[in-house]
Design goal:
By secondary structure, this protein is mainly α. The protein has one domain. Helix content is 57%, strand content 0%. Helix 1 runs parallel beside helix 3.
């Protein structure tokens, strides 16, 4: 049965029929996976933002400037490579974001909290590096 309101239980069916938790070990590993994937989502978004700055030829804010990322792009081939890499990262982050959204739609309270905590932890480690002044396009509300 699919729940339509939040519930607290160690028994959850997440994303696919074969991902069912029946005991506490399975449930805790599922929550850990949700936390890690949501933190990874923030990491991918950080990489996408940095790549977008490289492609635009803008300098990084001093807080996130890295010597390896300061190279000037020359030629259309380099800009095409940045566009392709940016499109790939956008697709990957969109897919992860939608899977996180579908996981939250399992309406399990523990899954919800694990994803929110994972997003906050990922933001703390990867995204609070002076990029607040940048306008970023994203397809997911998880950003």
């Amino acid at each position: 049965m699919m729940h339509m309101t939040f519930y607290w239980s160690r028994k959850v069916n997440l994303l696919i029929d074969s991902w069912k938790t029946v005991d506490w070990t399975d449930y805790l590993l599922t929550l850990l996976a949700c936390l890690v994937v949501s933190a990874f989502y923030q990491f991918i978004e950080n990489r996408r933002i940095r790549l977008k700055l490289i492609g635009a030829g803008k300098s990084f804010p001093a807080e996130i400037e890295t010597p390896l990322l300061r190279r000037k792009l020359t030629g259309n081939g380099a800009k095409l490579g940045v566009k392709v890499a940016g499109a790939f990262l956008f697709g990957l982050s969109s897919a992860i974001g939608y899977l996180l959204m579908l996981s939250v739609m399992s309406f399990n309270g523990g899954v919800f909290l694990a994803i929110v905590v994972g997003l906050a932890v990922g933001y703390f480690f990867f995204r609070n590096e002076g990029e607040d002044s940048l306008i970023i396009d994203t397809s997911c509300a998880c950003a």
